[in-house]
Design brief:
The chain is an all-alpha fold. It is built from 16 helices and no strands.
Amino acid sequence: MTESNLPSEENPETVAFPAGSLPEELPPVQPPSAGYIIQLFLIPALIVAAVIGVWALFGKLADSETDWHQLVAELGSTNENRRWRAALGLAQVLRNQQIAPDTNGVLLARQPEVAAALSDLLQESMDSKSTADKDVKNQEFLARTLGSLEADDVVLPMLAKALAPDKNIEVRKSSLMSLAMIAGRHFESQAQAQTGAPSGTGEDVPSLDAPLSMPTIADESVTEQLRLAAQDPEPAVRHLAAFVLGLVSGQAAMEQLEVMLLDGDAMTRANAAVALARNGQVQGVPVLLAMLTDGTTELSRADFGKLTEEEQQLLLQRRQFEQPIILRNCIRAVETLWAKIDEASQTELKAVLSQISDNHTAADIRVQARALLNQM
């Protein structure tokens, strides 16, 4: 190494090495500065803390008693935007409380002021007779929200009005869904008391050995609108009505469901049969057998080709979406009633279920059918 290449005290880091040579020691490592450490750790920590603080603040506002009182008051505002923002806020609090009830013990679903304010807003919107898409959507939203409230004396008469034949069909369907929620809560409570079984969740609605002596919904205005809905020209209204009637229970509902077993719509017939089974009634077994048999039948290509394009689309849609739902519900209904079904029908059902378990395209339906066969 020449003298010019040697390090010096004045310039310790400017050492040049000849090509191919290696330094004997690594260059000195400088420790990170305090500013670098702050950038690396402290600033992200502050950001995370700020996010958590904002989340906690809004959570407290959403759950506080003062806040829901304010939202209810704003439902009476003359400003339309403020009214609907308040309605959305109340709906959000209701959803939050269904997931995690308030620690202060205030359950919004049981507050009469909330039920009255939301019902009044729905009545006002329906009285406007507006057919604008925004107004119809608002009515749908309110009709669905009422189903979360535990104030039957206020909510049921309003849902009956929203279910009337002269209302928009989407609003009527939302009303039926809310009635199903309300009747379902009472039905599960009655079933638990009658059978001792835990309340069902989701699709696993509990079943009864016999219809309830007293229906879960006795409001006369609702009863009348359900009777009309069961005969409605729209199949979607009829099959939702059949579902609700099964949860209403009682002798009158069972008689209506028996009539609906003859409905021209497959989903309505299936819902009526399943609803009867949920109440321990076997009158719908022939329909259950027919629905299950239909699930094993495939249309030939030649017959499919004879259909119009619209008919083909409807058939494909039914096979893809409607039929799997029907089959799942029918299999559960058969399981519920099995001990009450006569021997001849049991034999037929076993044969059909065996075909479904072997050949159906949906894996979950095959598994469900096989599980039932294994129980028999």
